[in-house]
Amino acid sequence: MRTGLVAKKLGMSSMFTEQGERITLTFLQLEDCQVVGQKTDSRDGYNAVVLGSTLKKPSKVSKPMRKVFADAKVEPRALLKEFRVSQDNLLDIGCEMKPSHFKIGQFVDVTGRSIGKGFAGVMKRHNFRGLEASHGVSVSHRSHGSIGQCQDPGKVFKGKKMAGHMGDENVTIQNLRIVEIDDEKGIIIVSGNVPGSKGKYVSIKDAVKKAVSV
């Protein structure tokens, strides 16, 4: 089990394959991604690597965190992300991470914070078809209809699909193929959609349902 990477979503585009198939592309950029900490099984009960992304002014960092970065002998970072790894995949503190950590053609899982949609109805939130457009239905065409039973059990079960807050939650998109990598510019291009809006950070890890080797 290897560490992942932390990247910023730059935007999206598309391209055509040699077979004439159009595929969607998402551009991700690494910004000063570096190992800033370690967790070991003997000390912490598990093995993990802590990555930092995007340099931050020391004056903008809290005093306890300045001590953490000073002890690690690395510059302060704006974002920290922990990745669990196996014992043989622990990385030294200060190690710079590059897009070439992954390979072209490899499948990865990308996790990010989805765009918030606010309060949404059931048709938008859960893809309900709504009520009939005629035959006596009035005013409530986009409502969800009945939400329970009769006297027995006489309640609405937890988890019932209803209107409510939509988006702004952690989402993982699995099995995205890496199309291109550029170590000089710190760019990773993946095929498919990635959660979040432009400028938001995502984590990239080896796909759990696909083999790492390509």
TrEMBL record:
Keywords: Methylation, Ribonucleoprotein, Ribosomal protein, RNA-binding, rRNA-binding. Signal peptide: none annotated. The keyword Lipid biosynthesis does not apply. Pfam families: Ribosomal_L3 (PF00297). The keyword Transcription does not apply. The modification N5-methylglutamine is found at Q151. Methylated by PrmB. SUPFAM superfamilies: Translation proteins. InterPro entries: Ribosomal_uL3, Ribosomal_uL3_bac/org-type, Ribosomal_uL3_CS, Transl_B-barrel_sf. One of its GO terms (cellular component) is ribosome. Belongs to the universal ribosomal protein uL3 family. One of the primary rRNA binding proteins, it binds directly near the 3'-end of the 23S rRNA, where it nucleates assembly of the 50S subunit. Part of the 50S ribosomal subunit. Forms a cluster with proteins L14 and L19. This is Large ribosomal subunit protein uL3. It comes from Candidatus Megaera venefica.
